[in-house]
Structure formats: structure tokens, C-alpha cells
Amino acid sequence: MDAVSFYNKFESLPSNLKKEAMEYLEKLFSKNNSEEKSKPVPKRGTLKGKIVIHDDFDEPLEDFKEYM
Fold first, then answer.
1. Within a domain: residue 63?
2. What tens digit of pLDDT does each residue of 7-34 get?
3. Count of structural domains, the chain
4. Contact between 18 and 10 (Cβ < 8 Å)
5. Domain range spanning residue 20?
6. What is the pTM of this model?
7. What is the pLDDT of residue 38?
């Protein structure tokens, strides 16, 4: 549903239902904001020492010697 059709449907509601719809939308926005805040933020350096790059990393692989 695009914004225009949403607006048209919203405007066709009676005032008591508009108020109820606005309250529901506010709940949705607050729920969305709280979910965004609750996402864990990775801390710098948490993988330090867990990734190892060996000295021969840049050396050609045995499997590809025939292509060189």
C-alpha cells in the first residue's frame, strides 16, 4: 500500500476511529524504536586473537601450480 492510498483510507475513517488508528500507529513507532535500540552493538576488538593469518598466506597454493 502506498502513502496516498493509506492517507485516503485514513481520511475516510470517522474521527473516533482516526484517534484509535493514531494511537495504534504511535504504539507501532514506539515498538520499532525500542527494537532498534535493543540490537546489540559489536564492540571493537572482540575478535582479537581469534583470527590468524599464517606467514605463507600470499604463497601460491599447491593445487594451482599447474596453472602457473
1. no
2. 999 999 999 999 999 999 899 888 877 7
3. 1
4. yes
5. 1-40
6. 0.46
7. 67
